[in-house]
Amino acid sequence: MAETKNLTEYYIQADPIIIPDSFEGYPLRYFNLPLHYRDDLNYVLIPYGLVQDRIEALASRIFYDLTINIPEQLICICVLKGGYRFFSDLISKIQNENRLQNNRSLPMSLEFIRTRSYINDYSSNQLEIIGLSDLNNLKNRNLLIIEDIIDTGITMVALKEQLEKFQPKTIQVVSLFTKRRKDKKCIFKPDYCGFEIPDHFIVGYALDYNEYFRDLEHICILKESGITKYKINDNNL
């Protein structure tokens, strides 16, 4: 059993796969993409299959870590909207671990939240959490926040600070993506991460651009023409 634990601990990394700035992606012609998006995309950055494999590895690592260190119920918190697909797949793969492992188990409950941010350069970090009916129920509980992408990290820092006011036992964060920003460094590092990506605007796998592209399976980079095409007209706001 010790060898199995070591394989999980040392060979499945909690740190992300790093996609370098020089990576040019995969040509669209090699993938089955929705016709209504083909002219709007530049290239595929991460194919759907690689996303799924990485989530499966993260699920194994999270299951191992939490059943060793936190052998009690875990509250898994989905940050909507973009995080729902990652949340669903990650939870499903952790449940598979529960079924396959005979000597360890990780009971889970699920919560769904949305955040409304009031953060700007001239005020302290404030965040309204929408969805949890009674935040006092988080006291002395173990939390796993499941997020799709961490960009600047400002919102996640504020979310953790807000949740800490309700005295949970532990808070851990898993994000499918973190972004390497050109203009500023991300101020938050998640406990588990799938991929570190260059400073591109990505869509697909439930990540949207003005509510478009959520139905795209692969992680793709938008063309400038696509950004312009789906831009919201200020006059309609």
TrEMBL record:
One of its GO terms (molecular function) is magnesium ion binding. Belongs to the purine/pyrimidine phosphoribosyltransferase family. It is an enzyme of class 2 (transferase). It comes from the Eukaryota. Its cofactor is Mg(2+). Keywords: Cytoplasm, Glycosyltransferase, Magnesium, Metal-binding, Nucleotide-binding, Purine salvage, Transferase. The keyword Glycoprotein does not apply. Its EC number is 2.4.2.8. It catalyses: IMP + diphosphate = hypoxanthine + 5-phospho-alpha-D-ribose 1-diphosphate. This is Hypoxanthine phosphoribosyltransferase. Coiled coil: none annotated. It is found in: Cytoplasm. GO terms for cellular component: cytosol. Pathway: Purine metabolism; IMP biosynthesis via salvage pathway; IMP from hypoxanthine: step 1/1. CDD domains: PRTases_typeI (cd06223). Residues 54-209 form the Phosphoribosyltransferase domain. The lineage of its organism: Eukaryota, Metazoa, Spiralia, Gnathifera, Rotifera.
